[in-house]
Amino acid sequence: MNYRDYITILKNQINSQPYKEQLHFALMICKKLYFEYQKFADKYQWGNADLLMDAINICQQAIENSADLTRIKELLPEIDSITPDMDDFGSDYQASYALNASASVYETLEFIKDQDKTHIYNIATYYTDTIDFKIQEAKDLTDLEIENHPLMIEGWNFIIEQTKNGVAETSRVQ
Length: 174
Prior knowledge:
Elements: H1 3-16, H2 19-44, H3 49-64, H4 69-81, H5 86-89, H6 93-114, H7 118-138, H8 143-147, H9 150-162, H10 167-170
Helix pairs in contact: 2-3, 2-6, 2-7, 3-4, 3-6, 4-6, 6-7, 7-9
């Protein structure tokens, strides 16, 4: 599978997935990326990993109950304020990972608010961007080398599997 095939499959699956499954998928990615944010916050003593986890918990509650839209609207600027700006952290990969983690939570909150499927696509992209950065930490590779890297192939396959109808809900991270 190449990048174009991956994107085509991903968009088709996201468009056919019901809201609750999309939310389960988004939440799973938020939880996976959260630890990257936590490592970054510990290293730089910057940000707020507890606030990010609180937002993830609000997203979890939105699956189980009706969403607290007032709290979500309050959280959006708070999450934005703890999202690292790459200009402040140079080329540190950990800052990129933390940016992707906080952006995935922000997008999940937005998705709960407006149910725009573009947020789900963006969340999947934050996950694969994190994999891309990890691959490039070792050495600078071409786009084709990244596409064919075992970690990227594994990441794409994971995303494709998780966005199939009926999968994200049954295999969600607890």
